[in-house]
Structure formats: C-alpha cells, structure tokens
Write a structure and sequence with these properties.
By secondary structure, the chain is α+β, with helices and mostly antiparallel strands. The protein has eight helices and 20 strands.
Length: 380
C-alpha cells in the first residue's frame, strides 16, 4: 500500500472567478524518522526543478509501494502558482510579482526575534526539548503574521510546510550555469553529501545573504538562537539550501531523471528512504564564501561576446566578455570586461544583448571580500 497523501492548499482569490493552490505531496509519517522538504519553481519560470520533482515523485511512489519510506518527505512540485501564470506577450516573468515587483524568493519572514521573545528565557540544556520548543515557536511566529496580499500568503504557506524540516532543498536554476549550491556554514557539513552526489561545481556559504530568501528563513534562526543563548543546548536542526539545477534551458527528461535519482540517494543517506545509496562519488568542488563571488556587469549596451566558457578557472584580470556597440565602428565599438579576481566562472547570462548594468558573468572566488556587506545575492 502506498503511503502517500496529496493536499491542495488554496491561496486567497486574487480576482472573482479565480483560484490558485499549492499541490503538496506527503510520503511517510511525521511520527517516524527525519523530515525532508523539497520545493521547486519558487521562481516560476525556473523549470528544471519542477521536472526533477516530477521524476522524484515517480521514484518515491515506488519506494512507498515497497515500504521503504523511513521518514517524512514533503514535495511541492510547483511552489509558485502566482508566477506560473505571469506571461506578457509570450514571455514568462516568474521571478518577481507583477503586482508588487517583489522577488518571490525574497522577503520571507525573519522569525528569530519573535521566537526569542517567545521562548528564549526557557531554553535549557536538554537539546531534544529545545528543538521541540523552537519548532513550535517557529510555527506560532508564522501564524501570528497577517498576510497583506496573495504573495505574502504564498510565502507564509511555504514556510509552514518547511519550517520543521530537518532537511530542505529549494530547487532553482540560473540563467546559464553549472550545477551549484547556496547554503549556510552550519548546514554545510550535513549537506556536503548532497552537493557531492549532484556533482555541484560551486558551493557558496553564508548565514544571511540579505533579502531574506526562503532557505535562510528556515535555517538562520537556529544559528542565531544558539548565538543568543550560548548556555543552552540548541542543535542546528534545519539543514536548508538552494540547489541550482544548471540553467533555464537545461530542461529535459534525461537530466531530470538523473537529478531525481541523485536526490533520492541523498534522502537515503539521511534516513528518509530505507535503501542503499551506493558509494558517494568524489566532490567536484570545495565550498567558498558567498562574499567571494564576483559579478561582472556591463557598463554599456551592445551584443555580448563571451570569452570564457562555464567551468573555466579564471585568473584576475582575464578577459571574460566583450560588449559590441553596433552603432560604433572598429575598436570604438568594443568594450572588454575583465575578472576582478580569480575563481571559477559558474554562471553567465543566457541572453546575448547587454543593457546598462546587465549581469554578464558570475565567478566564485576562494577568498571572502571584506568590503562586501548587506545584500550578497545577485539581486533583490
């Protein structure tokens, strides 16, 4: 008998005659084993994750039939039905809300202060008790927030689903990119096998990158509460990450099936599936600080000619792109762009026309930049 339930969580209607809902799949029981939460397409036009979770659902159905679900696994194959419908003249604009301009993967609730005010004084030396207290307080903090619009309602609904998970994988993709991961320093030891299993080519670490993305809303309170209460036993209990499944155009059954298999192997390693994952392959990269990432942006408009391929180890001062202004002639038409520091070129723009300020390439550097602060991610 398959141990699977399906639920549809309705969002408030944005207009008469219109309803939207989240499809939530649950495997296993919340009484046994660890909980893993996976969602895809929070940026609704980033579709590799949605197809990957489709393939993972097929795998999990069979594991459930075989009685091999040993924890609780929650899937939300499409985490953003609002952005899923945002098309303008055939172009899918799923990264930000058209009504407010807000990035769907920013502005998630920062719950640390509310939880600390609720239970900070009662946190003691019993780790298991503290974990239960913190998770209950996190749920109360979410429930105390009154959403002002459909987008906030969506954000809170997703937080409720994942806030008590031991592991959270938020599936995204970049414009044109290698497989890469964003996570926190405290989560990295537990999530390193995931990055290795997926053969991630870059891993960036930061507690809070700015803007309150989804994965940090889940994981950061644990680190911050432990810092506020060093005398208490507060184990880090939500290993959350953003897993970037290459680029926008890397959407096909073959890749999605392999990615789903590798995610399933990670779920085996952490005790959510009772099966053998096999030998862990060798890591494809080391983790580096998010503040070491360098973004090379255009200072003028024109056609982009890239001078380095994805995966290239870049040296400081190396030319990475040229932008050609076709209204000019000869060398006057060409503006070269150079790497500000060394590192791996792991993402670049899939478009080939630059406007003023267009992001051209992204480079993962080994060393943190002490001059970078505030919002470390690509955009708000």
């Amino acid at each position: 008998m398959i141990n699977k339930t399906e639920q549809h969580l309705d969002l408030p209607s944005p207009a008469p005659g219109t309803t939207r809902s989240l499809r939530v799949l649950r495997y296993g029981s919340d009484n046994d084993g660890p909980k893993a939460y996976l969602q895809a397409a929070l940026h609704a036009n980033e579709l590799p994750g949605a197809l990957t979770l489709h393939h993972l659902e097929v795998l999990l159905d069979q594991y459930a039939v075989d009685g091999k679900i040993s924890g609780q696994i929650v899937l939300v194959p499409v985490a953003n039905p609002i952005g899923l419908t945002q098309f303008i003249q055939g172009t899918h604009l799923g990264r930000s809300e058209l009504t407010s301009g807000k990035n769907f993967n920013r502005h998630h609730a920062n719950l640390t202060a509310a939880v600390n005010a609720d239970i900070g004084a009662s946190l003691g030396t019993d780790a298991a008790t503290n974990v239960k207290q913190v998770r209950a307080a996190l749920h109360r903090a979410i429930d105390a927030i009154s959403p002002k619009d459909e987008g906030e309602h969506l954000r809170l609904s997703l937080l409720r689903l994942g806030i008590d998970a031991d592991y959270c994988i938020d599936l995204h993709c970049a414009s044109e990119a290698l497989m890469h991961v964003y996570t926190s320093p405290d989560a990295w030891p537990q999530l390193a096998p995931l990055a290795t299993q997926m053969c991630a080519q870059a891993v960036m670490l930061e507690l809070r990158s700015g803007g309150d993305p989804f994965d940090e809303a889940l994981s950061a309170p644990w680190t911050e509460l432990a810092t506020l209460h060093p005398q208490a036993a507060i184990p880090f209990s939500c290993n959350s990450c953003t897993l970037e499944l290459r680029g926008h155009s890397d959407v096909n059954d073959e890749l999605a099936h392999v990615d789903a298999l590798n995610i399933a192997k990670f779920l085996m390693r952490v005790g959510c599936i009772d099966d053998g994952p096999g030998e862990l392959p060798s890591a494809c990269c080391d983790a580096t600080p998010l503040s070491g990432v360098k973004y090379v942006r255009s200072t003028g408009a024109g056609v982009i000619a890239f001078m380095a391929e994805l995966g290239t180890q870049i040296e400081a001062g190396q030319r990475v792109a040229t932008v050609v202004d076709c209204y000019a002639s000869g060398n006057d038409a060409r503006t070269d762009y150079f790497a500000p520091s060394s590192g791996k070129l792991y993402a670049r723009n899939r478009g080939r026309f630059a406007q003023l300020g267009t992001l051209l390439v992204t480079i993962a550097g080994d060393a943190p930049d002490p001059n970078r602060a505030g919002t470390l991610m690509l955009s708000d």
